[in-house]
């Protein structure tokens, strides 16, 4: 019913925030993916990232220049 109401193919409801974050990240990412994340991410995000088994690259908190640096480094690495 929820999916129909939301006009989507599927829908899911979680009982609380931690479960949502900790399970959604590994559901949409997989081993071998690269995820760029703020080093100040909350505990539930960290747990979700850990469960995803992806490559995690942390940038300095709210520092878009550091994120850009990491993205450029990754671009160079991808071209090898």
UniProtKB/TrEMBL annotation:
Keywords: Acyltransferase, Lipid metabolism, Pyridoxal phosphate, Sphingolipid metabolism, Transferase. GO terms for biological process: sphingolipid metabolic process. It catalyses: dodecanoyl-CoA + L-serine + H(+) = 3-oxotetradecasphinganine + CO2 + CoA; octadecanoyl-CoA + L-serine + H(+) = 3-oxoeicosasphinganine + CO2 + CoA; L-serine + hexadecanoyl-CoA + H(+) = 3-oxosphinganine + CO2 + CoA; tetradecanoyl-CoA + L-serine + H(+) = 3-oxohexadecasphinganine + CO2 + CoA. The keyword Acyltransferase applies. Pfam families: Aminotran_1_2. Residues 1-76 form the Aminotransferase class I/classII large domain. The keyword Iron does not apply. GO terms for molecular function: serine C-palmitoyltransferase activity. InterPro entries: Aminotransferase_I/II_large (IPR004839), AON_synthase_class-II (IPR050087), PyrdxlP-dep_Trfase (IPR015424), PyrdxlP-dep_Trfase_major (IPR015421). Pathway: Lipid metabolism; sphingolipid metabolism; Sphingolipid metabolism. Its EC number is 2.3.1.50. Its cofactor is pyridoxal 5'-phosphate. GO terms for cellular component: membrane. Belongs to the class-II pyridoxal-phosphate-dependent aminotransferase family. PANTHER family: CLASS II AMINOTRANSFERASE/8-AMINO-7-OXONONANOATE SYNTHASE, SERINE PALMITOYLTRANSFERASE 1. Component of the serine palmitoyltransferase multisubunit enzyme (SPT) that catalyzes the initial and rate-limiting step in sphingolipid biosynthesis by condensing L-serine and activated acyl-CoA (most commonly palmitoyl-CoA) to form long-chain bases. The SPT complex is also composed of SPTLC2 or SPTLC3 and SPTSSA or SPTSSB. Within this complex, the heterodimer with SPTLC2 or SPTLC3 forms the catalytic core. The composition of the serine palmitoyltransferase (SPT) complex determines the substrate preference. This is Serine palmitoyltransferase 1. It comes from Cirrhinus mrigala.
């Amino acid at each position: 019913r929820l999916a129909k109401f939301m006009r989507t193919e599927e829908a899911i409801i979680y009982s609380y925030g931690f479960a949502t974050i900790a399970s959604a990240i590994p559901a949409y990412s997989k081993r071998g993916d690269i995820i760029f994340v703020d080093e100040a991410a909350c505990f539930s995000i960290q747990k979700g990232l850990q469960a995803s088994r992806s490559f995690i690259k942390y940038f300095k908190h709210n520092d878009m220049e550091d994120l850009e640096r990491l993205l450029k480094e990754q671009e160079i690495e991808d071209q090898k």
